[in-house]
Amino acid sequence: MAYLKAIVSAFGLFMLFVEPVHADPFTQQQGQGRVIVSGIFTQSPKGFDANGNTAPIQEYDQNQFYIMGEYGVTDNLTVLVTPSLGNVSLKGGNDSSGLGYTDVGGRYRLAKSDHWILSVQGLVRIPGTARNYPAPQVNDKNMQYDLRASGGYMAGSAFVTLDTGYRLRAGDPPNEFHIDATVGAHVAPRLMLLASAYTTVSDGRGRGVFNQSYRYTDVYASVVYDLTPRISLQAGYTGTVSGRNSLRQRGPVVGFWYKF
């Protein structure tokens, strides 16, 4: 089914551009893979307080770059490797640049039909250059272990997906619950529109500077255009629409995808 292949390819492109730790339910075919290079550039001059109201904060600027490789060992099993680079600038404070998290793991397809698919995913997240900031969206000092269950439903040129997960975090930060949803549709043979909402909720409080619970929801809107059957480009925008004890981030998203 040509339309299903197109949806699977373009959706996987979007999900992995915006935030590699998010899962999608689709796996690569045996012997096939892709490399995705993406960038997210956000500013946070405001944050959410303990009541969920916005308030001025010491501004955070983040530039994040991801290089994700995935390869189909079998039709049901895809291995994933994602190194990242980042720069965090704290207004009136220190800048930090260098290697971010490197995610290593895999995605396994449990079941599928012509219209739906179910998968699970597990990642080990290895920290790079330590960033010991108190904001939950910035700190990347400690090992993390991310487990997800994902499902997708396709109908015609449109689809919807949902994934839920739990992230184990070493050190002071608390563990986290994750609930993510995406809807999308082809509006032209080479053009797809997508929208996603990613919600993170702390599992209680952590220790040290993380002694308060937090939550935040990031929304992404994106356009994906296929230059060739192997190469696609993406442009979009992301923003944090609600939260508590967290940053309110805003900024563009760009990406380049190569399928082999």
Task: For the structure shown, list the relevant keywords.
1 helix, twelve-stranded antiparallel β-barrel, 7% helix, mainly beta, single chain, 260 residues, Lipocalin, disordered N terminus, globular
Overall description:
A hairpin with a 5-residue loop joins β1 and β2 (54-72). This protein has a 12-stranded antiparallel beta barrel with strand order 1-2-3-6-7-8-9-10-11-12-13-14. The longest helix is centred in the first third of the chain and has 17 residues, at 2-18. Residues 1-18 have low confidence and may be disordered. It has one domain (2-259): Autotransporter beta-domain (Lipocalin, Beta Barrel). The protein is 7% helix and 63% strand. The chain contains 1 helix and 14 strands, in the order αββββββββββββββ. With 260 residues, it is mainly beta.
> How would the global form be characterised?
globular
> If you average the pLDDT, what whole number results?
87
Q: For the record, what CATH class applies?
A: Mainly Beta
Q: Note the gap between the termini.
A: 20 Å
Element layout with pairings:
Layout lengths: L1 H17 L14 E16 L5 E19 L4 E6 L1 E7 L4 E5 L2 E11 L3 E11 L17 E12 L2 E12 L6 E13 L2 E12 L12 E12 L4 E14 L1 E14 L1
Antiparallel strand pairs: 1-2, 1-14, 2-3, 2-4, 3-6, 4-5, 6-7, 7-8, 8-9, 9-10, 10-11, 11-12, 12-13, 13-14
Task: Sum this structure up briefly.
By secondary structure, the protein is mostly beta strands. It has one helix at 2-18; strands at 33-48, 54-72, 77-82, 84-90, 95-99, 102-112, 116-126, 144-155, 158-169, 176-188, 191-202, 215-226, 231-244, 246-259. It has one domain: Lipocalin (Beta Barrel), CATH 2.40.128.
